Amino acid sequence: MVHPFLAVIDQTNAALNETMTRGQEIVQAAMTWAFEKGPGFAMSVLAAIAVYLIGSWVASFAHRLLLKALNRQGMDPTFSVYLANIAQAAMLVLVIITALGQLGVPTTQFAALIAAAGLAIGLALQGNLSNFASGFLLVFFRPFKRGDYIMAGGAEGTIEEIGIFTTTLKSLDNKKIVVPNSAVTGGNITNFTASSKRLVCVPCVVAGTNSPETVRTSLLRSASGNANLLPDPAPVAVITSLGENKYTMELRAWCPPEKYWDAFFSLNEAAKAALDHDAVAAPVPVMTIQQR
Fold first, then answer.
1. Amino acid 142: pLDDT
2. What fold characterizes domain 142-191?
3. What is the CATH number of domain 198-277?
4. 3-state secondary structure of 88
5. 162 - beta bridge partners?
6. DSSP 106-134
7. CA 185, CA 183: separation in Å to the nearest integer?
8. Cα–Cα distance for residue pair 25/2, rounded to 1 Å
C-alpha cells in the first residue's frame, strides 16, 4: 500500500513533468516560428510602419497643397480648410488600411466588416456624426466665415477654423474655445461682423435735474473726432429710460466691425470726461423711510 504522502509527491512530479514538457513544446514552436517566419513578419512590420509614416507625410503635404490651390482660386478660406481636412482624413484612412494589408490583415473584407458594424458604429458615434453633418451645413450655408466675431453654442469669439467635428474660436482674452459643430447649429448664431458697420451704445445714467440738452451736447461732443467711428450715420444721443429722480441717455454711434471694442472703450472714457467737464450731476440714491 502506497503511503498518501508519497502519492501526492508522485502526482506533483507528474504535473511538473507535464508542465515542463508543454513549456518545451511552446518554446520549440516559438523558435521554429522565429526562424521560419520571423524575418518575414519583421519585414512586414517594417513595411507597415514605412507605409504609415510615408502615407501620413503625403497626406499632410496633399492637405497643404490642396489648401494653397483652393486659396489661389479665390475660394472662401472657411470652405477651403474644411474641404482640405476631409481630404486629409480620407487619405489617412486609406493609409491605415494599406498598412494593415502589409501585416497580412485581409483588407478585402473591410467593406463587409464596415457594413456589418455600421449600425453599432452609428449608435456609438452618433454625436460625432451629428457634428460632422453640422460642420457640412455650416460650410454650405455659411452663416459665418473665418475671421468673423460671433456668439454661438454658449461661446463668443473670433472664428479661427471650422473643423470636421468642431469649430474653433478665439476669445477677446486670447483663449482658444472649441465648440462642437452640433452645438453651434443647435441654437441661435449671432454674427457681429456680418454687416459693414456696427452700433456702439454707451448708456449714461444722470440725475433728473440735468437738462437733456446739456447731457446730449456733452455726449455728442465726446464722440466728435473719434477715429474709430464712421461719419455716416452721425452719432446721436437719446433718452432710453426714465426713473425716479434720474434718466438714462444713451450715446449711439456707428463703427466698422473690426474697430468695435476700440470705439466702445474710447467712447466710454470720452463720455465720462465730457460729463465731468460740463458738471453733469450723477443720480443721488434716494432712501424712503416710513414711520409708524
1. 86
2. SH3 type barrels. (2.30.30)
3. 3.30.70.100
4. helix
5. 167
6. -GGGHHHHHHHTHHHHHHHTHHHHHHHHH
7. 6
8. 32
Residue 80 grid cell:
477651403
Characterise 240 by phi-psi region: left (phi > 0), alpha (psi -120 to 50), beta (else).
alpha
Which of 7-16, 98-107, 150-159, 172-181 is predicted with the least confidence, judged by mean pLDDT? Answer: 7-16
Residue spans per domain, the chain = 39-116, 142-191, 198-277
207 is written with which cell numbers?
Answer: 440725475
Q: Are 107 and 97 in contact (CB under 8 A)?
A: yes
Cβ atoms within 10 A of the Cβ of 63, count? Answer: 19
Distant-in-sequence, close-in-space partners of 227: CB < 8 Å, separation ≥ 6: none
Task: Tell me the C-alpha to C-alpha distance, in Å, between residue 256 and each of 76, 80, 145, 264.
Answer: 21, 26, 17, 12
pTM of the entire structure? 0.58
Q: Do domains 142-191 and 198-277 have the same CATH topology?
A: no
Q: If you classify domain 39-116 with CATH, what class do you get?
A: mainly alpha
CA angle, residues 141, 85, 188, in degrees to nearest 5: 35
